[in-house]
Amino acid sequence: MGLFDFIKGQFIDVIEWVDYSRDVLMWKFPDQDKEVKMGAQLTVRDSQVAILINEGKMADVFEAGRHELTTRNMPIMTTLRSWKYGFDSPFKVDVYFFNTRQFTDNKWGTPSPVTIPDSKFGQVEFRAFGSYNFRISDYETFFRELAGTNPVLTLSDVEGTLRGKLVDRFTEIVAEMAEHNFSFVQMQANKTEFVDALMPRISEYFAGFGLALTDFSIQSITLPPELQEYLRKNTQMNMVGDMQRFMQFQAANAVQKSAENPSGGNAGMDMGTGFAMGQMMMNMMNQQN
Fold it and tell me: For the chain, which residues make up each domain, given as ranges?
């Protein structure tokens, strides 16, 4: 190796993140304690952002593309280091890459039953499960709150924190809504509206970590067996009431048809069919109890 090649090998002239996994949120370029050559090529791929960190403080940000590191496109570094225009000496800096894609289908759930006051049942215990999507939105906050000095940060490194805090926030919000007479039955029947009410509040929590919550869903709500049985019977009772009203309607309709056509026999047939259908449905529900 010649002297020129030796000197060249002491400096970094190409910076890029090639082999990155979909579950990596942040990755530090391994500089091996070398200095970056002025004019080095920084390649930022799609779904990436590269940020120069000067002595722990965030400096210049580079979007997708190929960049030549010079004083012209490193204004913050130039100011922090008091470089003169045209400065071309090697320099020391940390380069972090951030994954900008959405991280989807992350699971959340209440590890134990949640007890809330309920305007209809007094108190209700339930468990909820769902998923959420997010992406990094504020790199400085994310770096400060979650990354720290870690050279690599993966989804598994943060999902426990995010899931735990999300469940805490979910429980707090549900309890607050219950205090304003929002019953569990309403929550079950209007799940979409319930999620819409939760989303802004949970988004505030994610923003504190430099993350944007892009989607939040409740996929299932599980009740204790005794409450499930109560709701099942209540539904059947409502169906019986509806069936009785249906039978009354059929009878009234048949009487009207009979009055309009005294010589016809179809009215009696309609009334008999209506009663038979109603009786059959009621017998089926009684067999289930």
Answer: 3-99, 118-223, 236-288
Reported as a pLDDT band with limits 50, 70 and 90, residue 7 is: very low
Spatial separation of the C-alpha atoms in residues 110 and 163, rounded to whole Å:
9
What span, in angstroms and rounded, lies between the C-alpha atoms of 119 and 181?
A: 5
How wide is the angle at C-alpha 184 spanned by C-alphas 178 and 189, nearest 5°? 125
Q: Topology of 118-223 in CATH?
A: Tetrahydropterin Synthase; Chain A (3.30.479)
d(CA 215, CA 133): 5
> Amino acid identity, residue 229?
E
| Cα–Cα separations (whole angstroms), residue 84 to 4, 39, 68, 78, 88 | 26, 15, 17, 8, 9
Q: Round to whole Å and give the CA distance between 231 and 237.
A: 10
Q: Which residues contact 122 (CB under 8 A, 6 or more apart)?
A: none
- DSSP structure class, residue 146: I
Taking only the tens place, the pLDDT of each residue in 64-79 is: 999 999 999 999 999 9
Q: Which residue has the higher pLDDT, 267 or 12?
A: 12
Give the three-class secondary structure for 23: coil
By the 10 Å C-beta count (0-12 exposed, 13-18 middle, 19+ buried), 149 is classed as exposed
Question: Which residues have C-beta within 8 Å of that of residue 214, sequence separation ≥ 6?
Answer: 102, 133, 134, 135
Contact by Cβ (8 Å): 69, 38: yes
pLDDT of residue 91: 93
Q: Give the mean pLDDT of the chain.
A: 81
Q: Which amino acid is at 6?
A: F
Structure tokens at 89: 């000496």
